[in-house]
């Protein structure tokens, strides 16, 4: 009887804990892709960023959810590419959702200015730390990138983390003080890869 009571308590505790950790089946996120004058390295320039910040805000989800990311293209700077596309880098795609991988001009069209698109991606059993970024040419170099974290509520190493939240995300990146269109023109004309100004 004692074993049964303990097993019942453990089962109820696990269900309650899972319910507390689990979130909705679909995780909806909205990203407004905008131009902003920012100075990540102290040199101000026009950028392309998610929700007005660099790096972009963390997208978080839980293993087993379906991630829905609505991208609103609000780019206006005519000196930069004004179309865009989102890539959830590292996420496994299947035949049924291959169009959500957003390879511009390959399996999807870029998102035109003043337009929106909602990417719907089942996460399945995948968990871990990834990143999202623009998939249109080298636009991510202008700043459209950020972290993508898929948590596993049953992570066997969970007890080893002192802190596991957005405050512990570390991102490293190269940075150029010119936008990508002039850099790309030089590269195409000379074949010389531009050296980053900082990073």
UniProtKB/TrEMBL annotation:
Single GO molecular function: copper ion binding
This protein's record includes keyword tRNA-binding: no
Signal peptide: 1-18
Pfam family, one: Cu-oxidase_3
Record domain Plastocyanin-like: where: 35-154
Keyword Signal: yes
Superkingdom per UniProt: Eukaryota
Protein name per its UniProtKB record: Multicopper oxidase
Species: Macrolepiota fuliginosa MF-IS2
